[in-house]
Model the fold of this input.
Amino acid sequence: MQLTWLGHSCVLLSGTKKVLVDPFIEGGSVTDTNPDIVAITHGHSDHMGEAVSMAKKTVAISEIAKYLKNKGVPVESMNIGGTLVVDGISFTMTTGVHSTSIEEAGLGFSGGTAAGFVIGMDGIRVYHAGDTALFSDMKLIGELYHPDVALLPIGGRYTMGVTEAMMAANFIGAKTIIPIHYNTWDRIAADPQVLKKAVERTTDLKVTVLQPGESLELLP
Ligand code: NI
Ligand code: MN
Done:
């Protein structure tokens, strides 16, 4: 499987199927990635992104799924703690400690709660944390689902920063940590090399810092 960080929180997993998480990139479009399945972590516009205009099969929490269905998007709804298999790809929805609303719908569209996903494809499990604070149940995510890769926000201000992500990496125990949700804008500026040095000095985990558009090959 190939994992491509398209920027911000947007990640494309290409294997048996193409799965796109959080279809938003700043100043660009993700439509030409042509995914089979889109997964949305929460309703903020920097995560919902092009979900409506792409109108691909979309996995989302019940409240967002209802909204998307109403917009003509084919949806698979689920909720925190559940696992859903779509076209052979498994999606487990994990909690995110973060606010949410369906921003493009205007005030009053709550969007349920913020979530993350553990996505299983081709014998590899990838945990995409979405937007979240550090929470100690990340240990449970590690113990239960044994993700091979963890995508963690490090930009601070709206999510974990580098310090919290260091502890998150320890809680989850995924062998490969990939920082996301930073340097998109000045207000979420962060240095991923600080995370890399700290984690690799103190654990046997590896932090892979990707550039937007860069891919990593993952073997089971
Ligand atoms: Ni958010
Ligand atoms: Mn965000």
The mean pLDDT is 97.
